[in-house]
Write a structure and sequence with these properties.
Length: 371
């Protein structure tokens, strides 16, 4: 097939870039369309603080008729390379329908990263690991939750054919309250409370900025040794939190404290993919009404992140946070939680999830390649 590669810069090109997944909707049985307004905000180099410390390029692939039929981003995050002391760049936003398109796009990303002095490529990672990550390799019959990517089943084969090798898998687990042994959960909660000696409280929305300062400090420390971790600046953290605040529900974020010190937290957000699918990814002019109606009916939410300071791990605090999160979310009306994503070798997290009858739903994969 004849393709034309272009760099997406204009508003029209960026809009086409965001909308590329729609061209493959028929290949994804549980397709959730992109929420145009929010996706464009992430690509806005003038307003999003991520670009204060990073360089990115967005490539768009058009067919002979001018239709947008593929895309990829390539990014160098200078905060990340300085933190890790390496020269690893990332590719993300990958979407392609055949081997030829995949090769053209990956070549474009490789070229950009080489131009910027990188010697290794990792992805799919949309800008950094603080945003959407992974290529879907399993769970294609399950509707993904907020910020979980989806891809046509065959795309993983096209990527592997280009010489990229598996780096690590990211797992999604579902915990449904009607499948949880609540008596066992309560016993586990009491045991975890004795082991950790911590107290758990809800995030106080009335002290939003103060709470964010506390959580930002935790966020940086909790994940600093994680695979592919990318530091998040204060400005970037507050920018992202501003977007989350619009959908945050009281009772879905808990903070762990021990002897007056904040030592861990867990954050859940309602699964807005339910609403996005209902309004077909367009809130205006009247899509927001369908969005709101759908959100009133859903019980789905996603645990976006769980972090514990390194010196307090191994005390049962992770299980204590999870069990409290399930119990304290009861008044919110949300009952079906997805905990994602979890690194495949994070046994300390996977073990308590298995014990709670959590089921693995979607599996995502990060690839790597030397440049």
């Amino acid at each position: 097939m004849s393709y034309r590669l272009e760099v997406a810069v204009s508003r029209r090109q960026l809009r086409d870039f965001v909308e590329v997944p729609r061209a493959f909707a028929a290949r994804m049985s549980c397709f959730v369309p992109p929420l145009l307004s929010e996706q464009l905000k992430l690509l806005d180099k003038k307003r999003h603080p991520f670009y204060h410390h990073a360089e990115a390029r967005f490539f768009l692939l058009r067919d002979a008729k001018g239709r947008a039929m593929g895309r990829i981003s390539a990014c160098v995050d200078h905060e990340s390379t300085a933190f890790h002391g390496d020269r690893t760049g990332v590719f993300g936003h990958l979407m392609a329908g055949d081997a030829e398109a995949t090769e053209i796009l990956l070549d474009a990303a490789r070229g950009f990263l080489r131009e910027h002095g990188m010697d290794r490529m990792r992805g799919p990672i949309e800008l950094s690991t603080n945003y959407t990550c992974g290529l879907q390799v399993d769970g294609f019959d399950i509707q993904p939750r907020i910020d979980i990517p989806q891809h046509p089943r065959e795309l993983q084969d096209f990527v592997a054919a280009n010489g990229l090798e598996k780096g690590k898998d990211l797992l999604c687990f579902e915990v449904r309250r009607d499948n949880v042994d609540m008596a066992r959960l309560e016993r586990g909660n009491r045991l975890a409370a004795r082991r950790s000696r911590a107290t758990i409280r809800n995030l106080d929305r009335r002290r939003w900025d103060e709470e964010l300062e506390r959580l930002h400090g935790l966020y940086v420390q909790c994940w600093e040794k994680n695979y592919a971790f990318a530091p998040m600046t204060r400005d970037e953290f507050f920018h992202v939190a501003k977007g989350f605040r619009a959908i945050y529900v009281d009772g879905l974020c808990q903070i762990a404290e021990l002897e007056g010190e904040t030592v861990g937290f867990i954050l859940g957000l309602p699964d807005i993919n339910v609403g996005i699918r209902a309004c077909n990814g367009r809130l205006l002019p009247f899509g927001f009404l369908r969005f709101l109606r759908a959100m009133k009916k859903t019980k789905r939410f996603r645990v976006m992140t769980l972090g514990i300071l390194p010196e307090y791990r191994g005390r049962g605090l992770d299980a204590f946070l999870i069990t409290n999160h399930i119990e304290m979310s009861v008044p919110t009306g949300y009952s079906d939680a997805e905990l994602s994503w979890v690194l495949e070798d994070n046994i300390a997290m996977i073990k308590p999830l298995r014990e709670m009858n959590a089921a693995e739903t979607i599996r995502l994969r990060l690839y790597e390649q030397a440049l």
